Amino acid sequence: MNKVINFYKRNLKEILRDPIIYIFCLGFPVAMFLLFYIINKFSNGNTPTFEVLSLLPGIIVFSYSFVMLTLAIVVSKDKQTFFLKRLYSSPMKSYHFILGYFFVGLIVGLLQTLVCIITGFIISLISNVSFISISSVLLLIIAQLPVLITNIFLGILFGTIFNDKSAPGICSVFISLSGILGGCWMPIETMGAFELFCRFLPFYPSVYIGRIITNSTNAIGITYSFNNVAFLGLIPIFIFMLGSIILTVVAFKKNMVSDK
Amino acid sequence: MNIITIENVCKNYKTKKALDNVSLTIKKGELFGLLGVNGAGKTTLIKILCGLTYKTSGTIMINNFNLDKEIDKIKEIIDISPQETSVANNLTVKENLEFFANIYNNNNANTVNKIVDIFNLNEVVNQRAKTLSGGYKRRLSIAIALISKPKILFLDEPTLGLDVFARRELWNIIKKLQKDITIILTSHYLEEIENLCDRVAILSNGKLLKTGTIKELKQMTKAKSFEDAFIKLVEAKSE
Ligand SMILES: Nc1ncnc2c1ncn2[C@@H]1O[C@H](COP(=O)(O)OP(=O)(O)O)[C@@H](O)[C@H]1O
Ligand SMILES: [Mg+2]
């Protein structure tokens, strides 16, 4: 465990000393919130998707894709600068590395979640809507953990298999997917076949479950409830989580002894 | 006593035969040079010895551990300063040293300070690694490799890209390193090998041409200078 903590500390320093984290992981969610708040205001506040409590789970899930990007950048850079190669010849094992990266992703992700919640709270004050209770806030954080974990491992995975030039590109594909297919700012429930497709991926079900917790209303005026969409949605959420963990472990082990 | 025994080692990359039946022994406590032009196979051999890539065939024993079976034990007693100066760029010099010391549970102020002194890093100890000059970065990279108190230290092209002054300074440091470490140093600079190494192996195109002291290699080829000896050996093989 000492080796994990040691590596975790280094990764945290490495990330916190790079301005990119503040732009992507903290600035971006706040900016999105403000943007949709303004849009909603100028459209006379009649877009349910843009209501604070509906936005909150969507932005949280979307912002996790920036955790993925951050990790992919760190891991691929560590590879590119041969920092990892050197550590591979030390007594560190693959799980030390993976956990050391994972915990940093977890911390950054949780901080982001907090920033999103605080921003949402402030906007709810400004626009005079009541916010969710503390227990709902906690439940929301826990409910979004699986999709956060998925994003963290995907980030480590992409950093491991791609170089520092192509990893960010691959991630931006996932960032777009997470944004569009998560239904953060699109009323997916009105889109028929597209909705069905989104239910096979983890993003939309995660946002959906989040919206049950924030007690928000969908585009056709129905309050989100724990129905089949949420229930069956748990399947892709957990399959993607397990899949990303397994793939990361396999890829990382392979990278430790390689011809590259 | 031999600390490293390499027998009939071959390495085939997909497109290239990088090591061709290399056999070699390295004695405990010596500063051993691997000399060869770019692409000779030096880095490949070092990577195999450190468990960073697989060999295609052959046997390797390090400190009586079999590389194929006991790589974990080997990793406890070796360290490498790779050809690329790989350090944590956003950490300071001190943080880098502490980070690597922690991996080996060696982190105490004494060890770190001693290494800082040996490598003359006092001036830059609180500077982030990415802001260091080439010479300082190399020194840090090698200092990091020593913090684990390895029995065997691999230095892959330690002075690559340094100016003459930085190179001289580094040579002096390497010479002073305590004699109970075995150092394997690769270089394509003849004067570096001549200056530092007790014994030399000459690699060319993946083949090991000759092993011996500088003096022996000169006598063998009846050459006046080490450079002449090197050229004669490499050319004789390629004819
Ligand atoms: N990952 C690799 N894949 C294919 N060929 C490689 C790889 N690494 C090195 N080589 C080739 O193997 C040969 C030896 O390379 P290397 O060991 O790096 O030489 P040196 O360190 O002596 O300059 C070179 O021809 C090089 O192009
Ligand atoms: Mg090399």
Protein architecture, described:
The complex is a heterodimer of chains A (260) and B (239). With 260 residues, chain A is mainly alpha-helical. Chain A has one domain. Chain A has 11 helices and no strands. The relative contact order of chain A is 0.15. The longest helix of chain B is centred in the middle third of the chain and has 13 residues. Chain B is globular. The model of chain B has no long low-confidence stretch (mean pLDDT 92). A 6-stranded mixed β-sheet of chain B has the order 6-7-8-3-9-10, sandwiched between helices. Chain B is α/β, with parallel strands linked by helices and 239 residues long. Chain B is built from 9 helices and 10 strands. At the A-B interface, helix 1 and helix 4 of A face helix 2, strand 6 and helix 3 of B. The complex binds adenosine-5'-diphosphate and magnesium ion (MG). Magnesium ion binds next to helix 1 of chain B.
Q: Which structural class fits the helix and strand makeup of chain B?
A: alpha/beta
The set of bound ligands, ions and cofactors reads: adenosine-5'-diphosphate, magnesium ion
What share of residues of chain A is helical?
Answer: over 70%
In percent terms, what proportion of residues of chain A is strand? under 5%
Given the structure, what is the number of helices of chain A?
Answer: 11
- Gyration radius of chain A (Cα, Å) is 19 Å
- How many strands in all of chain A? 0
Spell out the key features of this protein.
heterodimer, A: 260 residues, mainly alpha, 75% helix, 0% strand, B: 239 residues, 26% strand, binds adenosine-5'-diphosphate, binds magnesium ion
